[in-house]
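Q: Could you fold this chain for me?
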Amino acid sequence: CEIILFQVLHDLELELPSVANANFIDVENGDRITCIPGDIQEGYDERLGEFLRTLAKLSRSRGIDYHLLNTQTPYQRVLQKYLLKRSAASR
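A: Sure. Below is the predicted structure, expressed as structure tokens.
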């Protein structure tokens, strides 16, 4: 069995917006908070970075091929590049 994990994040998930106030809505329960993104940027970056590193490490340890993608990159390009790389590696 082979598992390939493509995690897709939006620019605004990778870097908080540069605005005075932002409303954040929890997609799972609808909870809302309003804050100044600049006030939480450092902590957000640290926690997101740690989460992504942990997910990548856990994936590798279980033989899962992990890839972090941005929504700005067309998925067709990503899949084509991935499949070409795999094809070249199997020759």
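A (continued): The helical segments are 11-14, 37-61, 75-89.
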